[in-house]
Each structure stands twice: as structure tokens, then as C-alpha cells.
């Protein structure tokens, strides 16, 4: 290899490194600013979950620059844009990026525990 080949390879590696460093990953958890119990999780595999710890909807998402399209399993599409660490839904709701989903409220935890106990009790009776 001569110096020209080394420079060409170095330029390619540098452009790849800069491209990776400039891209901000969209995958992550975004918590609703209006309702802290509601969140949007964008997964690296292109799937998403939108709802609370107890119930929600899922589907696939696509990213085109700052535009994010959430395609629900039923066929409906919700669109929004990513502004820094915030997902802004075109309906007006905003979701701020967090490292983990919001904790379930005490009421949600108690309701889930009662449901689980009823399910176990019913299963044992049958």
C-alpha cells in the first residue's frame, strides 16, 4: 500500500466515524409531559409501545429525518417529530426522553396485585 491508499482508507474511516457520531439514536423511552404515567418506548428493532405500565398499543415505527411515524397494529398511524430529546406528537402531546419507564402508581400496583390474586384463586378453584 502506498500513501495514497492509506489516505483514502483514513478518509473513509473518518467519514464513517463522523456519520455514526452525528446520528442520534431515536430508540429509547419518552415520558408524557401531560401524564407522567404514559410513555412511548421506541425499540431498536423498529417496534414501539405507547401507553402505561398496565395497558397500551404497539406497532412499528419509521424515522425520516426528524419525522417519526408510528403505525399501530390496527392500521392507524400517528405522526410526530423529534426535537432534541423530545417527541412532539402532531396532536400536541410531548414526550421527554428518559432512561426508564415511569414507575407504576401505588393504585396501579394494588389493582394488578388484586387481579393476580383473583386469577390465582380462580385457577386453584377450577
Describe this structure as you would to a colleague:
- The protein is of the alpha+beta class and 126 residues long.
- It has a domain at 24-102: Uncharacterised protein family Atu4866 (Lipocalin), CATH 2.40.128.
- 32% of the residues lie in helices and 36% in strands.
- It has two helices and eight strands, in the order H-E-E-E-E-E-E-E-E-H.
- The chain has helices at residues 3-22, 106-125; strands at residues 28-32, 39-42, 47-51, 56-64, 67-72, 77-83, 86-89, 94-98.
- It has an eight-stranded antiparallel β-barrel.
- Strand 1 and strand 2 form a beta hairpin.
- The radius of gyration is 21 Å and the shape is globular.
- Mean pLDDT is 75; it is low at 13-24 and 114-126.
At CATH level 3, the topology of the domain at 24-102 is: Lipocalin
**Helix segment tally:** 2
Per CATH, the superfamily of the domain at 24-102 is Uncharacterised protein family Atu4866
Extended strand count? 8
- The helical percent reads 25-40%
Strand order of the largest sheet: 1-2-3-4-5-6-7-8
Catalogue the unreliable spans.
Answer: 13-24, 114-126
Distance between the termini: 77 Å
User: Helices and strands, in N-to-C order?
Assistant: HEEEEEEEEH
Main beta sheet, described? 8 strands, antiparallel, barrel
Mean pLDDT: 75
Q: Using the alpha-carbon principal axes, give the shape.
A: globular
Going by CATH, the architecture of the domain at 24-102 would be Beta Barrel
Under the CATH scheme, which class of the domain at 24-102? Answer: Mainly Beta
The SS-based structural class is: alpha+beta
How much of the residues is beta strand, in percent?
Answer: 35-45%
* Rg from alpha-carbon coordinates: 21 Å
Amino acid at each position: 500500500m502506498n500513501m495514497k491508499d492509506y489516505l483514502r482508507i483514513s478518509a473513509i474511516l473518518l467519514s464513517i466515524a463522523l456519520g455514526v457520531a452525528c446520528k442520534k439514536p431515536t430508540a429509547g423511552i419518552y415520558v408524557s409531559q401531560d401524564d407522567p404515567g404514559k410513555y412511548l418506548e421506541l425499540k431498536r428493532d423498529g417496534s414501539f409501545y405507547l401507553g402505561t405500565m398496565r395497558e397500551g398499543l404497539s406497532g412499528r415505527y419509521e424515522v425520516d429525518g426528524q419525522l417519526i411515524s408510528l403505525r399501530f397494529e390496527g392500521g392507524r398511524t400517528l405522526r410526530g417529530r423529534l426535537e432534541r430529546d423530545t417527541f412532539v406528537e402532531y396532536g400536541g402531546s410531548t414526550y421527554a426522553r428518559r432512561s426508564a419507564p415511569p414507575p407504576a402508581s401505588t393504585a396501579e400496583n394494588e389493582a394488578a396485585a388484586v387481579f393476580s390474586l383473583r386469577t390465582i384463586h380462580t385457577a386453584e378453584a377450577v
